[in-house]
Design goal:
The protein is α+β, with helices and mostly antiparallel strands. The protein contains 4 helices and 11 strands; from the N terminus they run H-H-E-H-E-E-E-E-E-E-E-H-E-E-E.
Length: 191
């Protein structure tokens, strides 16, 4: 391999730079940050009977709080304002957490679950396998089916998608970024 690379260099050819994980993850984060202050409506595009509550409700994501290190994106399901996705830059990639609140603002017992990127992904797609904290939380709360969760975020010029996969489960919501909607109320706990 060294000889081949050396030969290519002598011929004046350059090899494409390998994808720098930090670079593509930062691009993903920065592209999502560029939407800060806007809200978008979505629809369920993959799911099963367990997702019927989502399918029958108006779904709105609001890129509400943004700084250089963290994005907070409330995800409203009808009148339910309990969910906020929290995406944080770390020294080794991106961290996705799910902040769940009750109507009075108190934290749900199943909250702050999620995971850290384990691979570079791309500037358009990032995946977050479940972390140990979340596995422990799921087990303590009778959610053993969730211990293999992987969350995926997809960001393209006209769409953003949130997807959850695990054995026997594939749930996805696609949001139309071409049509911002009126800003929803604050999520529970942030009024």
């Amino acid at each position: 391999m060294k000889t081949r690379l050396y030969t290519l260099a002598l011929c004046g050819l350059s090899l494409p730079a390998l994808a720098d994980p930090a670079n593509v993850q930062n691009q993903f984060f920065d592209n999502l940050s560029a939407l800060c202050g806007q809200a978008f409506e979505g629809r369920v595009t993959a799911g099963n009977e367990a997702d019927s509550n989502f399918s029958s409700q108006r779904l709105v994501m609001h890129i509400r709080e943004c700084n250089d290190m963290q994005l907070k994106i409330p995800f409203h399901v009808g009148e339910d304002r309990s969910r906020t996705w929290v995406i944080t830059r770390t020294d080794t990639g991106l961290l996705l957490k799910h902040d769940h609140r009750h109507q009075d603002g108190s934290e749900d017992k199943v909250s702050m679950y999620g995971g850290h990127t384990a691979a570079a992904g791309t500037a358009n797609e990032q995946s977050f396998p479940v972390d140990e904290f979340s596995i422990d939380n799921f087990k303590q709360n009778g959610l053993g089916q969730s211990v293999t969760n992987v969350w995926h975020l997809y960001l393209y010029p006209a769409s953003f998608s949130y997807r959850l996969t695990r054995e026997n489960r594939d749930f996805r919501v696609d949001f139309d970024l071409s049509k911002p909607v009126a800003l929803p109320p604050a999520p529970w706990g942030d009024e």
